[in-house]
Amino acid sequence: MKKNQMIMKDFNYDIGYTEAGLEVLKDYLLSQEMFWPLGVRPPLSELSYPRFTLGGLLLSVKRLSAYQKSTDQEEQLNRVNLRLEFIRSQWKVAWENKAGHNFNTRLHMWRDFIEEYRGNPQENADRYSYEVRLRVMLQLLQGEAGRLELSALDLLRALDNFLKATLAQGSFVWEAELQNGFPVSDYWYLYGSLPANVKTN
Asked: Does the pLDDT at position 1 exceed 80?
């Protein structure tokens, strides 16, 4: 799969990742690892899930809340949320520390993408709809972390300022059924595209 290629996801894809992640979540929180392998595959897919991270978990749960769901799926999500909240409350300090480490790792990945785009817009603009998941993770992780370094928050603010000045406003970049769960007021960066032919330096 090309780096900028989006995997078409659905409720079953995200619930599978989330449930597999919950099985390893306690061990993950108490480890020094940032990326954790999952020994399962998505339903009806030849592609493997990405490695488990706290940012990935939060993103999947957020997506799950946005899908149109059957009654059975609502009950399945409720069970997941109850289990997640239990683990979060039992390991609160480890959760906050892991969220902070995840935030810093994802921030550096997001910065790297923005710098690559600024250096060569034509080659990197079409990666945006894939890479922007990092910005969503940052927003979700920021709400879960303990104290974050001011330098990290300053960097995120600078990257946002660049993006606001460069992003061409447009339609929602992910699956249309998720749009109501990611309103433009909170997730403005999911509405638009980066121009391929622009001088950014």
From this structure: no
Tens-digit pLDDT profile for residues 109-166: 999 999 999 999 999 999 999 999 999 999 999 999 988 999 999 999 999 999 999 9
Tell me, yes or no, whether 3 lies in a domain. Answer: no
* E strand map for the chain: 168-172, 191-193
Domain of residue 46 covers 11-193
pLDDT by residue (tens digit) across 41-96?
Answer: 777 665 678 999 999 999 999 999 999 999 999 999 999 999 999 999 999 999 99
CA distances from 99 to 17, 83, 92, 147 (A): 18, 18, 10, 10
For residue 99, tell me if it sits in a domain: yes
Joined tokens for residue 37: 């392998």
pTM above 0.70, yes or no: yes
User: Is 117 part of a structural domain of the chain?
Assistant: yes
Look at residues 74, 83, 38, 71 and name the one whose alpha carbon lies nearest to residue 56. Answer: 38
d(CA 39, CA 37): 6
> Angle, to 10 degrees, between the axis of helix 92-119 and the axis of helix 133-142?
150
- Specify the DSSP class assigned to residue 91: T
Q: Is residue 167 part of a domain?
A: yes
In the chain, the number of structural domains is 1
